[in-house]
Amino acid sequence: MEALGERHRALYKGAAAPPWKETYRRRCVERLKNSRAKLLDRYRRAGETMHCHVPGALLVREVMEEEWQALQSANVNLPSLRRKETLSQVLEDPDELAVLEEIQQELISQEQLTIEEYERSLQFDQECLNAMLDNLDAGNKIICPVCKRNNLTVMSHLVLCQCGLYISTQGMTEQKLRSLLEDSVTEHGHQCLHNPEFSITSGMEGEANLLMSCPVCDSWTILI
Fold first, then answer.
1. What gap in Å lies between CA 50 and CA 66, rounded to an integer?
2. Is 138 in contact with 127 (CB distance < 8 Å)?
3. The whole model's pTM is what?
């Protein structure tokens, strides 16, 4: 009897993948891509709690279970998930479990790539911010905090950059602007570990302002 079971499994091993595989895989991949903001928010929160590098699979299980339930509602032949059950508990066939593991590993890899891309972006922003602060400390020309490439031109009535930054001011000097940027970044750093972002925003009367904001601590300040 046992030999017969082994023979049956050997024959089934070469069988085609379950019919739900590609649809389920495609939907999971798409959902994970569309959940980038949610993934990074969860990654930031987990990192702040653990104070260390956070492993993958932050969102994978949730994505897989939600897509399975959506697919199951349209296909009565698929087993349904009950409360506190995992997919590996409702699927019994070893070949289907292998397919599930394959999809899970693909999603974990995709999740990790997203996190690594985000970390590279953070590192680049940090390097640009450090370069700007180094120039401030050295008394050199001030690098534009918006484009992080060009030097700002500072006049009493105007601050401008080749990138399009054009802000009307009164009595502005390079020393005043240097101190304003340095103090604002330092003050934010006392409350939040993440780097602030700089952008141009319009005031009530349409005038341009320099905005410092942070998507992590949800703070914002009009600098000039």
1. 27
2. no
3. 0.49
